């Protein structure tokens, strides 16, 4: 008999999440049956989408949604061997029972020098988000200027580096001076702290006096409104996220950008990374090759202990993380 620890949504978040919104429970798991396997979480992901998802798709008492890298500890499914690792979407659970459906096996050839947590980061959902969201929607060309915000986070850090690989001039905005320094180390041509610039408008203009061809937006709200007038004619905007709005209690009042969109003939397109699920292998192969060649660097912020899941999640929303935020169970 296995006692699983499970984090549940105790109360719907109102504004910024609080520790008291989460509930840690224990659940007895039954013995596995034929066609089932028992998983033990090794690394769990915390991601911004969990905040809007909780509003749209969860009720109080539900297990928090999420992905994890897990070890197969018992198996009655031929394709999954005990001791192998998978990415599972079991939510915030220390142990879970699965039929194997929708599990992604980590290759047995996973390089020992790469932590398995990368399957939740550069070699997982955030990597694919950066890869397809930038290349398919912005279509950056050599010599073009690319703008990205939340640039020191899991997705943004990769977007900027992929922009450099594609020959762009890259401008990144992040929320602290150490993050800005890191972006410069990673090869960003210009990096700015959006919290300390006296005017976002002036900073955007100064960083790219000729304007931006591509904008990968992770933040939305005021940043999006400030950036659109700095786009070049026929610029492309990839609307990936709106983290500045996820904790809003009342909707932000924004100035409609119709005239900018029309006269600049901008393409502004939202996306879900799941759009390219059928091209997952292609994306992971490209990202892995760049990591191996040293062209794509990754960073992780690892929080220790399953009991710290809510802290890691709240830290992510506050901007405590550099690169991908994960929890080691
Ligand atoms: N469309 C899709 O399919 C997907 C969308 N996303 C979206 O991509 C974005 C980035 O996700 P991810 O890389 O995983 O997360 P990050 O690792 O970038 O973490 C979130 C970061 O957002 C920044 N942030 C928080 N609040 C604000 C704010 N008010 N204004 C500006 N920045 C803020 C913080 O960095 P800082 O210190 O710089 O403020 C924080 O570190 C999110 O919006 C997410 O929802 C992610 C995956 C898939
Ligand atoms: C628990 C499984 C979820 C994996 C899919 C995640 C899709 C993320 C899309 C993000 C949107 C905005 O942040």
Brief digest:
With 329 residues, the protein is α/β, with parallel strands linked by helices. The protein has helices at 50-57, 125-138, 154-165, 177-185, 200-207, 221-227, 258-263, 280-293, 309-318, and strands spanning 2-9, 22-29, 37-45, 68-75, 85-88, 95-98, 104-105, 145-148, 169-174, 190-193, 212-217, 231-239, 267-270, 300-304, 324-328. The chain binds NADPH dihydro-nicotinamide-adenine-dinucleotide phosphate and the ligand CCCCCCCCC/C=C/C=O.
What does this structure look like?
With 329 residues, this protein is an alpha/beta fold. The chain is built from 9 helices and 15 strands. It has helices at residues 50-57, 125-138, 154-165, 177-185, 200-207, 221-227, 258-263, 280-293, 309-318, and strands at residues 2-9, 22-29, 37-45, 68-75, 85-88, 95-98, 104-105, 145-148, 169-174, 190-193, 212-217, 231-239, 267-270, 300-304, 324-328. α2 (125-138) crosses α3 (154-165) and α2 (125-138) crosses α8. The two termini are 19 Å apart. 41% of the residues are buried. The model has no long low-confidence stretch (mean pLDDT 97). Bound molecules: NADPH dihydro-nicotinamide-adenine-dinucleotide phosphate and the ligand CCCCCCCCC/C=C/C=O. The site of the ligand CCCCCCCCC/C=C/C=O has 11 residues, from loops.
Strand and helix layout:
Blueprint: E1 2-9, E2 22-29, E3 37-45, H1 50-57, E4 68-75, E5 85-88, E6 95-98, E7 104-105, H2 125-138, E8 145-148, H3 154-165, E9 169-174, H4 177-185, E10 190-193, H5 200-207, E11 212-217, H6 221-227, E12 231-239, H7 258-263, E13 267-270, H8 280-293, E14 300-304, H9 309-318, E15 324-328
Helix pairs in contact: 2-3, 2-8
The structure holds NADPH dihydro-nicotinamide-adenine-dinucleotide phosphate and the ligand CCCCCCCCC/C=C/C=O.
The ligand CCCCCCCCC/C=C/C=O is lined by residues 48-49, 65-67, 89, 125, 241, 272-274.
